[in-house]
Request: fold
Amino acid sequence: MKSKTLEILKNCMKNKKAVGAFNTSNMEITQAIVMAADKLRTPCIVQTTVSTIDYSFDTIGDLVKSNIEKLGKNTQIGFHLDHGHSLHDIIKAIDLGVDSVMIDASRMSLEENIEITKKVVDYAHPKGVAVQAELGKVPYLGRESLDIDWEDVMTDPEESKMMVEKTGIDALAVAIGNAHGFFREKNEPDWKRLEKIKSLLPDTPLILHGASDWVNGRVVKAIERGICAFNIDTDTRVAFCGAICKITGGSHCEVSDSRKILKVAREDAQKAIERKIKMFDLKK
Ligand code: G3H
Ligand code: 13P
Ligand code: ZN
Reply:
């Protein structure tokens, strides 16, 4: 398979290293990711979501691809769909040019998860696109109850082996006490569980979502036990929105999703432009 993302993940697995997989939602964040990777001459993965595809009116694919091409000449950069939820999402992202997709059916039953994931693999692989699935549930603030029963949401090692065998996925997102965003994580990740998953899946790159708040010690332990990629979104969002806030005079930034700021800015800019266009002769 010619997927750049998968090639990067496999190299990481072979060399016991890990790559950053960073979410983007606009041109500036895309450039920040690509220029950081290029400057450090280190591979990385740019990833986006369906909400960003919609927010960008389907233009994010071309934007990411052209920025990788123009600004990322000195390293290897993959382009991945993060948290697709249906075959429709996957088809759309592949049409926009990703070389890897995630089908996140983690909130479905194991059987349903396997069924939809297999459909995605059957669609993506002939197109040279790699597939990541999730087993167990990496919690989100606002989606789950605050009182997480970690035993209930973490990845079952035997099930993960079955998942890989039955679907042919290329990478697996694991839940070992990690959580998205500002959700409080398990005090100590379940390292034994991760070791067991890796021993059953020696050839499958394992992905850790919700890594914004993972610090050095934990990161090293995770890599030693088979994690090949860390997903980062919140850390970048907070830096980006914090900077906007700072230069616009705010002292504390309540918004950490730049789309919420830039969507309104885009709407107001469009209204201003429309006013000008209407003022000129051509419209009359
Ligand atoms: O895990 C998901 C990411 O944080 C991105 O979420 O782009 O759908 O808001 P979003
Ligand atoms: P954070 O927002 O916690 O960095 O998680 C990102 C992520 O997992 C994207 O899939
Ligand atoms: Zn995630």
Observations:
- Residues 23, 49, 51-52, 82-83, 180, 233 surround glyceraldehyde-3-phosphate (ligand 1) (CB under 6 Å).
- The first strand starts at residue 19 and ends at 23.
- Residues 53 and 59 are 7 Å apart (CA to CA).
